[in-house]
Design brief:
Number of strands: 0
Distance between the termini: 103 Å
Number of helices: 14
Helix content: over 70%
Strand content: under 5%
Oligomer: single chain
Order of helices and strands: HHHHHHHHHHHHHH
Length: 442
């Protein structure tokens, strides 16, 4: 039998001479046509990685953006002492601090405190609208933070999660205004077109003729119209009302844009803001402050998400019932129901009354049918949906919730009613974990 050996297993002494005429160089195998796409696909990630690496490199001549970093934590104050004591001896040792009971110290610090209090009051009274925008943006950022953290847990980077959450919020706001503005324009146009017809029908009615024959209503109306047209102050009042309405709408749109931008910034900087806030507390109490703050922010975020889910379910049910009954402007009214349902306790009731009043244009039968369906759903929501959704958010007694909502609405309007229950929950948590614990230890 002939033994076949692998050429690759031969030693160097057994290999044939490359210059031997009996040994011709091995022919290079032709590349396989099917291997070309595989090599191309394998080369694409490397090319993309090189492009991303090049994009991350700074532009020549560009300076990096300065960032405001926190100072390092001083664990031992002896490290901050000067190493060279010659300068201290040169200027002498510092004397004792002035006593806190000294009249000069008391008078000066008291004057400074009163001045700072007046300054804060003046700033707050002149920037009320800005403060409301900041509070609303912070409330929205705390509400979106659980969603962003949930996306982070699923492997999505935080910037991408922030972009996705804010995009959904912006889409909801744009959808509301895109539904609201055409509806308002359509209704105003229809009102202007039908107003002369309504006036002519009313003048030709038997009721108006009776009033005119007894009280001279027609002459009185013509006289008042002549006075109104010839009065420049009245015409200026109409023009001023139109300008005021336009400025109100513009301020509302501008405020919405400011709140969305601030929400984006707060959401992106929320971890750094928390770290800075925790550094303001004494180091001995920092862990407890951090634990309480995290619990408060978690409860606020869960409350906002839970209230959003409840409002979405409420609006969905209302839209289905309105579509079945045939209520006009069902989409717009569904947005209104969703916004009003955000207000705890009374939002759903107000939304039901608004839709019922509009449904009366179709007849009392339609309004009664909608009222039965919607208020039955509110009872189902109060006893079955809300407890299961809000069980991880906040636990506030009913009386405290009602009082806080009324007080918040009286102070800050709709925004105050929205943040009333989370604020009450935070106050109850602080009272429970700080004041009651301190009283128990005495």
């Amino acid at each position: 039998m002939t033994e076949h050996t692998d050429p690759s297993m031969r030693g160097p002494e057994n290999l044939p001479d490359a210059g031997s005429p009996n040994h011709a160089p091995a022919a290079t195998p032709a590349p396989d046509d099917h291997a070309k796409p595989l090599r191309t696909k394998a080369r694409r990630p490397a090319v993309l990685g090189a492009m991303l690496k090049r994009l991350r490199q700074p532009i020549p001549g560009a300076q990096p953006r300065l960032r405001f970093e926190m100072p390092p934590e001083q664990l031992d104050m002896r490290e901050a002492e000067p190493s060279d004591a010659g300068d201290v001896d040169r200027f002498g040792s510092p004397g004792p601090r002035i006593s806190a009971q000294h009249p000069l110290y008391l008078g000066f610090m008291g004057t400074v405190g009163v001045g700072l209090a007046l300054l804060v009051y003046w700033i707050g009274s002149n920037t009320t609208q800005l403060l409301l925008w900041i509070v609303a943006a912070l409330f929205i950022a705390l509400g979106l933070d659980p969603v962003v953290r949930w996306l982070e847990g699923r492997g999505i980077p935080r910037p991408a999660g922030i972009l996705l959450a804010v995009s959904v919020l912006v889409a909801a706001v744009v959808g509301f205004f895109a539904t609201l503005i055409p509806t308002i324009v359509e209704q105003v146009t229809e009102l202007v077109r039908q107003a002369p017809v309504w006036v002519r029908d009313f003048i030709d009615s038997e009721f108006f003729r009776t009033l005119d024959s007894q009280f001279g209503v027609r002459d009185r109306i013509n006289e008042e119209l002549d006075k109104f047209v010839n009065n420049p102050e009245a015409m200026g009042g109409i023009f001023g009302g139109v300008v005021g309405f336009g400025s109100t709408v513009a301020n509302g749109l501008f405020g919405t844009l400011i709140v969305l931008v601030l929400s984006l910034y707060f959401l992106a900087a929320l971890p750094a803001m928390k770290k800075w806030g925790y550094r303001l507390a004494p180091r001995s109490r920092r862990a407890r402050v951090e634990a309480l703050s995290e619990e408060i922010t978690r409860s606020v975020g869960n409350y906002v998400i839970g209230q959003a889910v409840v409002a979405l379910l409420n609006a969905t049910f209302a839209f289905i019932v309105m579509s079945i009954i045939g209520v006009p402007f069902a989409v717009l009214l569904a947005f209104v129901v969703a916004l009003l349902a955000f207000i705890p306790l009374v939002g759903g009731l107000i939304a039901g009354v608004v839709v019922i009043l509009i449904t009366l244009t179709l007849g009392w039968q339609s309004a009664l049918a909608y009222a039965i369906c919607y208020f039955a759903y509110l009872q189902f929501e109060a006893y079955f949906i809300s407890p299961r959704i809000m069980q991880k958010a906040v636990a506030v007694p009913g009386a405290v919730a009602v009082i806080s909502v009324i007080a918040g609405g009286s102070l800050l309007g709709v925004l105050g009613a929205l943040i009333a229950i989370p604020t009450a929950a935070a106050v109850l948590l602080l009272v429970k974990e700080i004041y009651i614990v301190r009283q128990d230890n005495h």
